[in-house]
Amino acid sequence: MSMTITREQLEQCLSKSDNQSVCVELLAEATEANRRALAPVALAWYRTAYAAWMGRNQKPEITLPCPDDAGFLMNGIMAAVLATATWNEMRKLPDWNSIDTTIDPDVAFNVLSARKPEWIDEWAEAFVTQDPRNWHVVRRLVRAGICSRSDSDAMISGMIAGIDDVIRHDLRGIRQRLLDDPELLDHEIWRLFEVQRPNSLNFAARDEFRQGSQAGWLESFVLMANADELPRERLLDCSLNALECGFSDSFARWFPKLHEALQPSLEERLEFLPRYWEFLRNANTSTVTFALDVLQKLDAAGKLADEDLIHHLPVILHDKSKSRAKLGLKLLERVSKRSPRLANDVALAICPALSHAAADVQEAAWKVIDRLGTAPAQDLIDAVHGMSPYIAASMQERVQQWLRRFGDGSSATDLAGEAVSAEETQKVLDNWIQCARALPQHLATVAGIPALLEAIANGSSSVPAVDLRSWDFPRLVDPIVPISSLEELIDTCAAALESIESADEVERILAGISQLCDVRPDDFDQRTGPLKKRTLAKLKGHGGTFMGDCVIADLNATIWAWLTGEVSHQVIMTHNVQNLWGSTAGGETWITFPPGDTSWLRDAFSQRALAIARRAARRESLSLLSAPTHSGGWIDPVTLVARVEELGDRLNSIPEFDQALALLRLAPDHRAAALTAWQATPAVDRDCEFHRALSHALGAEQTVVGPTVSLWCAAARARGAWTNDPLVMAQHRAAGPDAGQAADVQLKFHPADEHPGKIILTVKPQRVSLPARPGPPLLPAGRLRDDFKLPDREFANPNPIWLLHDGLCRFWLCPGGPLAVRWALTVWPANPDPLLAHGLFHLKSNIDWETKLWANRVYLQCLLPANTPVSPLARLVLVVGLAAKDSEESGIAVDVAITAIADGRLNGLDLGEMLRNVLLTGNFKVARWAKALKEIAGPTVLHAHTVSTALARVFTGDTACGTRDLALLLELLHELTLQTGLGIPAATRDWLERYVGTGKGAKAVKSILAASPVTKPEQLRELHLAALQARVDRVRNWGLLEAATEPQFSSEPMG
Amino acid sequence: MSALALDYSYRYQYASEFIGSAGRSRLKLATFGGHVVNPYFFEGRLIRPRRTADLLRALMEIVHSRFHIPAAMLARIKALADPVVTSSENRLRFEGFSGCCSAYARVDLLPEAVDGEAFGRGTTNVDFNAPMLTALARIRDSDTVALSVGTGEVRLDHGDNAVIEKKVALPVRWLKGFVEVQAYQSRMQLVHDVGGVDALRFLRSIPRTASKHASWIVPSGRGLRLSQVASRDGVQVAGLERVRILENLAPLARQLRIFGDSSTGTAGFELVLDEARFHLVLSPDVWRGFSGEGQVLTSLAAGDWEQAIPIVRKTLKWDATIDAEAIVRKSGLTPEIVRGALSALGARGLVGYDLEAQSYFHRELPFDLSLLDEHQPRLKGARKLIAENKVRLGTLTDDQQELFVAGTDVEHRVRVSAAGSKCTCPWYSKHQGDRGPCKHVLAAQMFLDSASPQR
Fold it and tell me: Nearest C-alpha of chain A: how many angstroms from B65?
């Protein structure tokens, strides 16, 4: 008779260091009623010990003997819980599901064998679901008759782990372990063919990563089939059943291997034939490949009916894989050879291959159709005619000839139709030429219209690119509507706290706070209560404030300062006897991690936001001098003049960085009007350096250049973004690139055999070397010394131009990475080149998407707007982007290329030259370029022509023949040459004739050289029309802008 | 019904099965629910069995998919709901909804797909079990496959004919999504219409990896391509992995139509086969189910269409397309009220929307949806706020009424004007009304509605 165990006895056992064995021993003979009475004790011990072990601040339910070592007690406590609690109680314990898997298997078996609880099946299911390796414990319980046999998905998955448990070092091997548990061979083993399992429990993965000499699953099954331990016929059947279950490809690919390893006889294969046919339509490529291989064997053995091949194989001709489609063609061709009576049927069956995306599949298909279709039936002619729009350019001529020969005249009708349409195109083109000639000359010149008209007049297919590195067209496109009321400011801030992606919106909010911070109606607190609460919550979630860490955190902290009058700042806090950096606001402090490795530019944003926050906290309203008036960061010069006038003496309180920023952001629009207004205003103080810099920026002559470098660098760049400024150059000689002297960016591409992938970017004149941005000082360990002071990390002389050119801006390392880059692009909206230099580095170093750097795509996105110049550096960034592995990143690059080609900023020669240079460096995946370029060539004739020209340029000079996947580019060039009707330039022909190599590349080269593309006048007209239309539209838009934005001299409300 | 899920028992008379061999077989679909317990809708044969089987398997692929698995849901990743079938005047429609509530699929079998006799009209659940789906994969077009939806035989609930019972907890958000997707479809416009080859090429060009950001499907030459840039002539799609399900069906299709609604970011795809249609409707993102969109909350709160609903409902006769104009003529109601009533009926699971016909069709989901309104959390929250007197009037100006609604620790300020309502709560700040009104706005509206006679 068993004794009743008391709470004290149990607690005594639980307190011991080897509590597991003593607890099991203690409870072994206990009655169920006694166990249940002890359950609350065990559960309380679990909860308390677990909380202590995890360092959770939780009120203890019991007093642990040694709270710091609670982890050591867990094993015994878990055993006690298992021995006393119900499943319902256990599952409610924190982390029980993951922790109970650590219970010693023997302990679990012994405890549950002794208890035989009703809930054991539910426990077993959860135990195996949590960790499939627990299956062997459950299996022991099943075999002991304590637990029910289950064939649930989890249990079957667990069986794989249990039988094939490499961790337990069971030397019996899979086969022996199965034979030792013969019940499994009746049912469970066949369920393995029906249940999709996680990757780690997938047969293929288990066999692939098997180490040592033990037989894997495949080998074990074959051995067992050969030894009649498992029915071979059923295995064969199940291996095919598994392919019909909708498993993923990685899971399903093992089953055909088993099927083949069982070596089905010809008769057996014929029995399975209907299923092989159906596998041709399977979603998994491995299954399709398997079926094709088997069918090929059967066909070679003469076991397939020709009619069946004709009926079933067309589905494979659509296949994405060229080799599978070609194999299908090969099998059908065999049919046509052995059964000439079926020639028309075979040709018809092959027709879908004419719409295959790969030209060589189409070519292979056409060869068969052409051979078979010497006297084609009408249905074949119709089918070929139906496919003709999808046929590759290299095939078109042959197919059209065939259609003309056998067709019913529909092709001739098409040609007549084309002639009519060509005439119409010419008329339309003439009209556009007339329009272009009537456009304002200064704008037409910037848009490259005269050069294009000349090309059109000469019948040249060369489309000159539009170089927008000019001040002669308007930039003020989308006005930013300033925040004009407190209500609007509250709403805008509330929305920004939840989500903000636009740099314009960041500036709008900063300007709004700066302007409206003194508006304090009586119900201010009531109206802003919810916003205040939310701001604090967001502040705590975004890390450090005003420490160059995160644009979003700085913005939120500025909102907080406006709302509460408190400026959040850094503190040192003690947590778990450690000194840590923290930020504080609203009486709360939270841990932050100061960025140790960032640029001054991001810090500059923080410092600017901090200055606004401090003013807002003091409720000192002031117009934000550098706030953009238009999207992209631009400031209307007339507005800036008005702001300066309004500020008067308070200009002195504006930080130097803000003053320089305001100048850098000046748009070229309305300069003359602004200068006139500025010179007429009585507020102008010739002694004020900013006033003089503003005059200089607006175009005033003979200005006396002052000593403040940042102001004069900005003024020089505002005066002419891409030109030298002799006055500033004379005064500030060693001020670096884009000071007085415009930056000269030089690119050097190292050949692949020297430094693969190496591109050197040099900027002249030499960059100003800035002091290293100090990282956070190490905090002393232990008690903080009284004399410890936080360092002043403000940069004394933040020149925006220097910051843009300084080192690498590691913007992506913060939560608002993309937003930080977008804001940086508004610092100098005229010229993104300094930031593109950073972007180039980031894109290139992450080209294989090793890290998820979402901010990188902003460097490509900034090239999308039609007014952004595509400089050589921008082209390089674009070409690198086209080779990116991430489909979204390369997708943006494709979008940029398509947009820039359409609006004339990018032409084939420039794109080709950059591609060629980068190709020379090696280390870029050519296949990615080929895919991207094919997509870029798609939208219009202009795009096809541009890519064709670019590729022709790639294959010139010293481009290496042996570059991997070069054939893909050559094949594309071949198709585009024929599609556009452009001939091959002499330099390209020369390169092609010197080409040394074999295989696809050599074949493509041969085809290009053999082709005699016919220049189609209608295509040339279409090309000219597309190019001209885009440019005329561009100039018209500029003209409309100029007319619509007449300068306003009244005082404006912008903050 | 718990707060999060409706406990539902499917009680099929038998398990759906695919039986037979040697080219002659039968697809027996078991039914449950609707106007009768186990309705008998159809008896006939599949004209192109393989293609129909492919469509039904694709539908089930959607039903069994969870394109987004929140961390807390890992243990419950299996979708357990069966699809529903509607037998109407000239077609069988099978509808399903993904477990994550972000994808809706429908297969319309036209008269060219099935040849037989319809014994009844209505909507019911159909049992789509794994063995039957596997067997469907073996159907060949040359087979003769009979199809029955339900059975005319009387079966006894014992012995070999035991009822197949499947107990599931249908998440309320799943049910809500299923009804709310209709409201989205009614706003979509046809944007792209391409041939089968172009459709296949486009679908094959979709990246294999799951996408993080939205893409736009835009025209390129004669076909389509994916762009990463927002475009007026494009259709926004996020979670492209959901579209890839169409890839296997594309070789069967002669046309692909793509519908879009730029205001909500939802997209609809219709594969046109000679004998059938396959529809796929996607929510704005994989993690955003249709159920969370709250598009019908305002109408549920306002109840403007309550009086018209019985009148409009009476005119529905399991029509494959509902002629709204005919209802206007018959009922004497205004077109706006009829449209509103149809929309409200959609929100109650009583009509579906057909993108191709751009009209509603009669279909009554075989679930008890009467409690659904109660389980709109925002609506429930708003009613609670009213009940607890947590709404008070603020200032009334010429163009707006200010109200204050108590929140947690703070009082939210709601402004109701002709241009719309605004609130200071995080929900409104985040979505700016795009995903329906917040509970504070709903409460404010209810408060004003109840106070209007006095005002």
Answer: 12
